[in-house]
Amino acid sequence: MKRGTTLLIGTLLLFAAIPPIAGWLNEPFYLDLFRRVMIFAIAAASLNLILGYGGMVSFGHAAYLGVGGYAVGILAHYGIDNGYLQWAVAIGASAVVALAIGSISVRTSGIYFIMITLAFTQMLYYLGVSIEEFGGDDGLRLARRSQFGDLLDLANPTLFYYVVLAILVLVVFAIHRLVNSRFGMVIRAARSNEARTQAIGFSPYPYRLAAFVISGAICGLAGALLANHTSFLTPDFMHWTRSGEIMFMVILGGIATSAGPVLGASVLLLLEDLLSAWTVHWQIILGPFLVLVVLFARKGLAGLLARDERHG
Amino acid sequence: MAETLLLVTELRKTFGALRATDGITLDVLAGETHAIIGPNGAGKTTLIAQLAGMLRPDSGRIRFAGEDITPLSAQARSRRGLARSFQITSIYRDFTALDNVALAVQAHAGHSFRFWRPAHEERALRQPAQAILNEVGLAARADVLAANLAHGEQRQLEVAMVLATGPRLLLLDEPVAGMGAEETQRMIEFLARLKGRQTMLLVEHDMDAVFSLADRISVLVYGRVIATGTPAEIRANADVRAAYLGEEVA
Ligand SMILES: Nc1ncnc2c1ncn2[C@@H]1O[C@H](COP(=O)(O)OP(=O)(O)OP(=O)(O)O)[C@@H](O)[C@H]1O
Ligand SMILES: [Mg+2]
Questions:
Q1: pLDDT in tens, B192-211
Q2: B225: which residues sit within 8 A by CB, 6+ positions away?
Q3: Which of A102, A221, B202, B206 could form a disulfide linkage to A212, CB 3.0–4.6 angstroms apart?
Q4: According to DSSP H, which parts of chain B are helical?
Q5: pTM for this one?
Q6: Does domain B1-81+169-181+201-250 correspond to CATH entry 3.40.50.1100?
Q7: Do the beta carbons of residue A48 and residue A250 sit within 8 Å?
Q8: Mean pLDDT on B18-37
C-alpha cells in the first residue's frame, strides 16, 4: 500500500476511535471538535478536486458551505425538516450556484479566476447579511437537526458523528476514483499543460466546469452538515476568511493528494484549538508555521509524511 | 497525382508592423513529406501555429481534406486529424511517459465524461499507447515521469503523443531541436520509417535531415514562400541560394 493511503486510513481510523476515547475521558467536547474537523475535511476535499487536480484556485468555496447551510436552515425555518429533502436541496442548490459561478469563472485563469470566485462569494455573503427574514447579520437558529425518520437520529451526537465520518469516507473515496478516471485525467492534463491538451484534441472547458459543479455540490453537502453541527447559521459561513481557511487546509495538507485535505483540516483546526486555549496571540504562532510548511513542503504534510506518493 | 490534403491560400498574419506571415500559399499532398526551411524568424512556427489553430490568421484560408478549417479551434482540428509537435517540447511533465500517450489516445476515443473506472486500467487506452511508445523507442521508459526523461526522449515522447491522435497530417516543428548527434540520428531514422505511411509537414533546420527526408521543400523568408520544389530543384534555385542556403550546400 502506498504510504499516502496508509496515512489516510490511519487518520480515518483515529476519527473512528474518537467517540469511545471521548467517552472514556469524559470529554464530550472532543466529539464536537472532531466532527467539525471532519466536516471541514469534506469541504477541503471538495476544493482539492478543483484546486489540486484541476488547478482552479477557487477563493470562494465558503459560498457553497453557505448555500448548503442556508438550504437546510431556510427549509427548517418554514417547517420542512425532512433530512433527505433538506440535504438534496443543499446539494442541488450548491450545484446550481456553482454552475452559475463556474460558467463565468472557469474560462478565465490565474488572478481573474481568484477574483471572480471571491466576488461572487462576497455577493452571497452580503445577500445573507441583508435578508432579515432569515436572521440577517444575527443569524438563523436551527430548531431541530435534519430528520431521517426512524433510520437516523442526528440528535444523538455519537450517531451524528459517525454519519459525518461515513460521508467523509465516501467523499474521499469518490474523489479518488474521480481523479483517476478518464474525466479526472482530462482535468489534470488541462492543469498540467493546457496548450498540449487542446492540441491533442480535448476541449477542457466542459470538463473543468463539470468538476467545478461537482466540487460545489460536495461542499454544499458539507454546508448542510455544518448547519446541523452548529444548529445556528450566520452569513459568516460564507465569509471570505472562511474560504481562505479551507484553501489553507488544502495547501497545508498537500494539494492533489487524497490524504491532504483530511490532514490539513485536522492539523489546522486542532492547532487553532490548542493554541487559542494557550494564548490569545495564537495566530502569531500559527501564521509562521503555515508559511514554513508551504515554503518547505511542496506537497504539504502529505508530501512530507509520504514522500513516495504519486497519484494520491 | 495524389490528392491535396492541405491547401493554404494567401495566409497573412502581422504582429504590429511585422508581417510574420505575408501571403503564404502552400499545399501538402496526401502521403507527401513536405519540408519547410527558412532562416530564424522567417515565420515557420507562426505558420504552424495558424495551421494547428492556435493562432488566428488576419486573412487567408486553410483547407484540410476538402473542408475550410480556418474558423475551427485547435481541438476541432485535432479531431479532424491535424496534429502538431511544438518547437519547445510540450508534454505533461508530471505524468509518466505512458500516461502522456494514453491521454492522446483518450482524446480520440469518444467523450471523457467517465467518472468511475480508473483510466490506468483501461486496456483500450494503455495498449495502443504502449505500442506507440515501442514504435518511437521508448518502450523501456513507459513508467518514467516525463520530467525525468532526457531531452531527446522528451522530444520522442511528444512525437509519440502526436502520433497517438491518429493524425492524417503531422505538423512537426523542429523535431530534433536541441538534440545530440546520436539522438538526432535516431529521430531522423524514425521519421524516415514514418515517411510514406504518414503525411508530414516538417519544419527543420537540419539540412541533411531535410534533404534526405523531404519529397518537396518550401523555402520561407520574411513570411513569404520564395520557392517550392523537389530537393534537387531547391538546391539548384538561385534565389534560394542567394537568400538562404548560401554556402551551406554549395
Ligand atoms: N506572439 C508574437 N508576438 C510578436 N511577435 C511574434 C510573435 N510570435 C512570433 N513573432 C515574431 O514573428 C517572427 C516569426 O517568428 P517565428 O517564431 O514564426 O519564426 P521561426 O521561423 O519559427 O524562427 P525559428 O527558426 O527561430 O524558430 C519573428 O520575428 C518573431 O519575433
Ligand atoms: Mg520556430
A1: 999 989 999 999 988 888 99
A2: B24, B25, B26, B218, B219
A3: A102
A4: 44-52, 74-80, 97-107, 123-136, 151-164, 181-194, 207-213, 231-236, 238-240
A5: 0.93
A6: no
A7: yes
A8: 96
A312 touching chain B per CB within 8 A: no
| Residue A276's pLDDT band (cuts 50, 70, 90) | confident
What is the least distance, in Å, from the CA of B153 to any CA of chain A? 17
Q: Domains of chain B: which residue ranges?
A: 1-81+169-181+201-250, 90-166
How far, CA to CA in Å, does A171 sit from each of A42, A197, A261, B137? 7, 28, 11, 41
- The 10s digit of each residue's pLDDT in A42-68 is 999 999 999 999 999 999 999 999 999
Write the ipTM. 0.91
State whether A201 and B114 contact (CB < 8 Å): no
Strand B18-29 versus strand B4-15 pairing type: antiparallel
Of A186, A192, A200, the CB nearest to B165: A200
The rounded radius of gyration (Å) of the Cα atoms in chain A is 19
Whole-angstrom distance between the N-terminal and C-terminal Cα of chain B?
32
In 3D, which of B229, B228, B212 has the Cα closest to residue B220? Answer: B228
Read off the amino acid at residue A51: L
